[in-house]
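To fix ideas, we now present one chain and its tokenised fold:
***
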Amino acid sequence: MGEQNAAHNPADYYSQLDRGFWANGWIAVLSARAVAALVILLDATWMQAGTDTVDEEVRPDLTVKQVKALRWWHLTETQLTRDYQISRDMFDRGVNELIEWQVVESRKRASVPRTTWAERRWYRELRVRLEVLRTPVADVAGGRRVPRVAHSSEPEPGDEKLGSTARRGIAPPPAGRASRANAKTKTKTKKKKAKPKARKSEAPRG
């Protein structure tokens, strides 16, 4: 048993609340339900497959591995009541407060793929923004928008190869139409105007 535990990093067993939570004043502005929702989200998403980590130098002789970005996650009502002993209403009110402070971001997802005819049910995915906790709360309260740190698993496969118009949802012109247009411009030649012929001067009559 001891050898099995020694093979794992003890930091992996528990979620870690960033030290900026205290150093940057977040403990003073968040309500108890918001702190509870934050801890629950950290516990659900901490060290999940694909979580980004980065080596941070605390001092010249100490480098620790810090979590850079967390995954999107959805917590069902059963999970909230069974695993965390909190109601959906209390959790949602805490999450909404965190969203107002930019500490958490949300997005809607469909439980049924769009290609099927079944009725889609929408649910909300949440993600803790650690970069906001590492920002002073006074800056966020003053209207500062903290740059978003994306998770490595967020880009869809092949997004890096698409152009800027495709990423914005703008359909590129059809390849056939574009090739025909290019062919026309290449084959089109300007018609040269024929220069008028110079008249021969007539010899003076005797």
Observations:
- The mean pLDDT is 74.
